[in-house]
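Re: your question from the hallway

Yes, I did run it. Sequences:
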Amino acid sequence: MNLSKRVLKELYYNMILIRDFEDIVDKYAKKGYIPGFIHLSTGQEACQVGVMLTLKETDYKFPDHRSHGVCLLSGTPKEKVLAEIFAKKTGISGGRGGSMHILDIKCRNMGFNAIQGANMVTCLGTAFASQYNNTQDVTAVFCGDGTIGRGEVHEGMNIAAKWKLPIIYVLVNNEYAISTRVESVHSYPKNLSDRAWGYCIPNEVIDGNDVIAVYEASSKAVKRARAGEGPTVLELLTYRWQGMFSGDPAAYRPKDEVKIWKEERCPIKRLREKLITDKIFSAKELDELNKQSLEEIEGMIKYAMESPEPEPKDALKYIYAGREVEGR
Amino acid sequence: MRKLSFGKAINEALNQEMQRDDKVFVIGEDVAEMGGDFGITQGLWKKYGEKRVRNTPLSEAAILGIANGAAMAGLRPVAEIMFADFITECYDQLVNNSAKVHFMFNGTVTCPLVVRTVNGAGFHAAYHHSQTPEAWFLNVPGLYIVAPSTPYDAKGLLIASIRNDNPIIFLEHKLLYDMEGEVLKEPYTIEIGKAIVKKEGKDATIITSQRMVYLALEAAEELSKEGIQVEVIDLRTLFPFDKDTIFNSVAKTGRVILINEAPKTGNYVTEISQTISEEMFEFLKAPIKRITGLDTPTAFAPKLENYYLPDKKDIIEEVKEIVEY
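Structure:
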């Protein structure tokens, strides 16, 4: 696939935007501005960008817990994503969900369900609705290697295959479920996603830090799903630079391992070198994009910091459709 | 008025709602050609086809996952979980997803789905096919629980449930399916959250639901021969329960008995008892009593199962006790 200059620029820009976004979230979390759990996707930017750029706004997206990038690229005003993480009234969910639950029906970001595996069956429903309504909208569901241990994966993949549901499973294999290495608790042929064979679902194992490879594989899977040929599992091999959550020292991982992934396999560095070597963009042009990203982030922080907190009584809203709940 | 069985009344409600709104679909195990384990969806597959009457494998989590995703995408699923006991297999989807969709999306999305399921003891089906699950859901904001006792109420409440924008657990007692009663031919709704006074009385109030309504009425009949007038309230909607009807009756009688088939500890009716105690204490003339199943699983052998279940004698004894208190 020969990618246009425009697409390559978007792939690059969105990866650095996610990198900068995660850095800022980490920084402000550590400063005490952000309550709760934060799962950073630093190092996994290519998995999010490569898939998201192949989707349309009307496609359903189910991000996983390490998917700030997916939420940023869904079409939601980006400052509302950050404001949600900052627990502000102006957040996309009014501060109800935070980092783990950024959702927006307008651009069909169906949100992460913090029960790992739950989205592996909920995603059947949106895909079913696309078939039911005879639209071509696909459903992309992100999950980690840890989620593959859940029973819903089996129930979901079996039905998705049998009904030829338009689903793209994005299995982001970063080798660790918190501290547990994937091969230490799972049995599988060669690759984790080879299990898909048992459901007659094609799988593809891709270098998840090669954004062009992810983009190309995802394009194929999306095309297949839109054509009514059913689901695909994309297993993206990657690594999270941070611990399980912001503040986790991740002492369970060998230091050398982290170093190799950061220094030799950084998805952004890789694309940057390629773009310069292939003379598609100059270093100066790319630096300009880096600057633009920081400026964009600057605006988001300003919005999030200046936004008001929700009113306590907002907690009573939208429990039931058409029925009020009593407060204190 | 024409008579229909409880099961046929539900079938008619499904058929009429599917006819009215092409966003309504039925999904579950064996619901298509076979028409469901209890025959409740019979004829729908033939009329509406596989698109709208969809069989699934034994995958309750997936059934509720599909229902949730489809509801969020604008469809109106009616999911059948063959036995209420199997709801544990999709409990996560109901508790952590259906119930919270409206809240999570800050009011921009609703989750209009109905989970029809079969509950209740007395069928000699042992502990995995006999439970009554409302207490499992009572502590989960976002869910409604509906549990009719007559064919008329079953039809009207199911239609109301399908048209409601909240996720609703619709309980069908397996021993009521063959019961006949008058049912209007045309579609109609019964307001969710409204109880009905089945028999008026001044001496004590029995509050109950589903099959236990009939036991309460039989006991009330016998007690009336002894001059004790019992008021019997059929809750019809278990959550939100109808405080007005309950409080009006308590204000009149001052004595309350709550009946429910599930085990006693943590029983659903305890919430009603606590509510009465907090808000109607000055009207009470005697302690509020619960008549429930035992704190045991439901056993298979008829002798064991009957011992587990409340019976008419238990009700008569308890009413006399609180009337004489």
